[in-house]
Every structure is written in structure tokens, then in C-alpha cells.
Amino acid sequence: MASEAEKTFHHFAAYGESSSSGNEIHNKNFSKMCKDCGIMDGKIITSTDVDIVFSKVKKKNARSINWTECQMALKEMGQKKFKDKSPEEALQSMFALMVNKVPVASGVTKTVAVGGVDRLTDTSKYTGSHKERFDESGKGKGKTGREDTHENTGYVGGYKGAGTYDQKKK
User: Fold this and answer.
1) How far apart are CA 44 and CA 129, in angstroms?
2) CA-based angle 2:85:90, to the nearest 5?
3) Chain-centroid distance, C-alpha 170
4) Would you say 129 and 123 are in contact if contact means Cβ atoms under 8 Å apart?
5) Which domains can be identified in the chain, with CATH numbers?
6) CA 4, 6, 7, 13 torsion: positive or negative?
7) Per the record, which residues fall in region Disordered (predicted)?
8) Which of 38-42, 66-70, 132-136, 144-148 has the lowest average pLDDT?
9) Are 25 and 13 in contact (CB under 8 A)?
10) pLDDT in tens, 53-109
11) Alpha-carbon distance 26 to 139, whole Å?
12) Which of 36, 29, 33, 70 has the alpha carbon at shortest distance from 53?
């Protein structure tokens, strides 16, 4: 069971850290692991308890802990969470909570398509100059739909007699 818990540790250690090898976990990800695995419940074990235990087991100037230090932290929290069990049984119970858990992206913004949002983003209902920015399928035309294309002829746009000045002069 410890090997399954160790896999979970490595998943959380690498979560959101592109440069991480997954062998050491920062306090932020350690807290996330405790929360996602159900170790931190807000009653018996709070986020403050997790931070204190993390600081206690890490090396003096380190910013992260390895799997061995994580086991020490879990053992200490296990004694608090499972008071009726021996320290070793409590650690096994903590490992059981971690089995087959992976980081979950919580609080991620989802796209909303309710009420006015649909109406505002439906390009088929656009009018005027905004309508010119999209083709029939609703895909934007890019710069051609936005930018005014003008010639430096000296005539106002839309003038019907453009280019006829020299002919009238004669």
C-alpha cells in the first residue's frame, strides 16, 4: 500500500511544476495532496496543522520534502487523525486514504452559455460594421474584417465620381 501512496506523492509533487522531477513536493502541493486525499478535513486536521507538520519535517533551509520526510509528516498527522490506532497502523490508514488519488483541478473557470452570453456571442445577429468582421459561418475574418482599406486618392470613401477630376478640367 505504501507504493501506491508513493505514486500519489509523485503525482502531486509534479502537479503544476513543469521543472519538477516529482521526487520532492512543495508545501502548496503537499497541502493540495492532503486536501484532495481527505487527510485534511478542516476539523481534526486543518490547513494550519498541515503547514506546521510540513515545516517540522523539512530540512532547515529546504523548500520541499522528499518521500521519506512525507512519510514522517503522514505518520505525525495519522496519530492525530486516528487516535485509537498505533503509529504504524495510523500511517497505513493514511496510505489507504492516498491510494489511487490524483490532483484535481478545482476552481477552474468553466465556459458559461446562459442568458445574455449566447445572444452576445452569436455573430449571425451582429449588425453594421461589426457584421463585416465575420464570414457566413461566424468565423472572424481577422485583419481584413477590422482594418479600413483606403487609397490615398484624395477622394472621400464612397464617392461615385472618383478619378473624374482630370476629365472635367479639359
Assistant:
1) 61
2) 25
3) 71
4) no
5) 1-98 (1.10.238.10), 116-145 (no CATH)
6) positive
7) 121-170
8) 144-148
9) yes
10) 999 999 889 888 998 998 899 888 888 888 888 888 888 888 888 888 887 776 666
11) 44
12) 70
The amino acid present at 11, given as its one-letter code, is H
Instruction: Count CB atoms within 10 A of the CB of residue 53.
Output: 21
DSSP string, the chain: -HHHHHHHHHHHHHTT-TT--SSSEEHHHHHHHHHHTT---SSSS-HHHHHHHHHHHS-TT-SEE-HHHHHHHHHHHHHHH-TTS-HHHHHHHHHHHHTT------SPPPP---THHHHHH-GGG--HHHHTTB-TTS-B-THHHHSPP---SSSPTT-TTTT-HHHHH-
C-alpha cell at 167: 476629365
* Residues making up the chain, counted from first to last: 170
Residue type, 52: I
Q: Is the pTM of this model over 0.70?
A: no
